[in-house]
Amino acid sequence: MRRALVAGNWKMNGNRAEASALVDGIVSGLDGLDAVDVAVCPPFILIPLVAERFGNGAAVTWGGQNMDIHESGAYTGEVSGHMLRDFGCTYVIVGHSERRTLYGEDDALVAEKFAAAQRAGLVPILCVGESLEERETGRTETVVGRQIDAVVSNSGADAVADAVIAYEPVWAIGTGRTATPEQAQDVHRFIRERIAAAGARADELRVLYGGSMKPDNAASLMAQPDVDGGLIGGASLKAADFLAICRAAAA
What we know:
Elements: E1 4-9, H1 16-28, E2 36-41, H2 47-54, E3 61-64, H3 81-86, E4 91-94, H4 97-103, H5 107-119, E5 123-128, H6 132-136, H7 140-155, H8 157-161, E6 164-167, H9 181-197, E7 206-209, H10 215-222, E8 229-232, H11 239-250
Parallel strand pairs: 1-2, 1-8, 2-3, 3-4, 4-5, 5-6, 6-7
Helix pairs in contact: 1-2, 1-11, 5-7, 7-9, 10-11
């Protein structure tokens, strides 16, 4: 049986005081969450703080929101996977919709980042998803399949099965809209079947939902057989909301 994962993506939010208060709030509510893996992905500059606070025995892991494909060198402003590992990161998000749309990251670059993350000993959280126009024109599976195939072609199906995939309906991120549980399940099942069709065992692959999951919809989304947790944006910035989603996953 797959173990649920709830990962908070803080995006470009927080300062030291806010991050400390958020970490304290999460730690105070971890009792009873032994059945779920909990992770947070803060901005790069806050990773040392998170590592120090969660590194004292709290059952929470952490990761980066992005990384460069190179190990080191003259790449001003970039952070490598090995740097993230040096600060105890377990995960790194690759291919987030905001990286694709705002910073022009295409499927080929995302595939390279995925491979570089695994070489550095990180578990990639590979984000895939379609825009509203792509959904309304019936191209959801075409788009999501293309995004997955790029990584499979570069790293192999087994490598993808060893990672985590997050389905992000782009039309539901930061808009207050959410895919219905049935819509989410349809795409999550498609993702698992795509990996299986590529020749890997996909029954243990964790597929997270990443489109405006909140405490009031988390239980219904995670009740679906192929939804294994969530990649949480705005709700991860409030400890009570984040913990409520974790409890829904644990249930």
